[in-house]
Predict the structure of DUF3456 domain-containing protein.
Amino acid sequence: MMIRTIFGLLLLALASSLSKEAQTDKKEKPKNPYLTKFQQEAGARPTKCQVCRLMVSELLERLKITNYKETLNKGYGLDLGEDPRLQIHYHTSELRLADVLDDLCDRVKLYRARAGPAFPYIKGAKSHLREAMDDLAARSKVGLKFHVPDDVIEDYTYEVVRMKFQCVHMLELFEEVIEEWYFEHQDQDLMTWLCRERVLKIDEQGCLNASTAMPADYFDAFEDNHNATKKSEIPMREKQREDM
């Protein structure tokens, strides 16, 4: 309850800071419907669809990064390079797949849950709490220190933590299916092969095509249109940790 109160107060402060008349206008500020919906639905996230989409997105990204045309030898000896039966092509090897899957679900920590986009998980974005704290610190005339744990700041709703555990569970259930795709069907779209055809029911697939763009009317609830224009993009972290 205390964490929810902190989050609510910081978001309220952020919303108020976007208005030049915040100190003089006594009228109640309109609530942003996207923020309201985001907080109301936090307990239901992530969905199975959202987990599958992020897992597949990161798997494909890791395959792209590890797309080496390297040839490895199966054993030791001076003449191994001359015998193709004793060579492994890393590009299509089991070793490459193992490398990709090894830390796959840890990579969901690179995402933050954001209000507004139809698909709320944005890679490299600031969390709402981080954005609010940075904004307050930048506008304050005195130094501000927030004694809030980093894990709360970055994942107030704890849904990224839940995302990781659900990703691990899904990977365990469908690892053989992924292996089948990797060795035999890489010419087919993995999002369709795995999520649409094997993991999700038809009525669970809505998030697969959902946009990650910020809605054009997201800041309409705020009175300061100048600031709303300046902040119309999702704020991103200056540096991402890729070595999770």
In short: The first strand starts at residue 71 and ends at 73. Residues 44-73+85-125+158-208 form one domain.
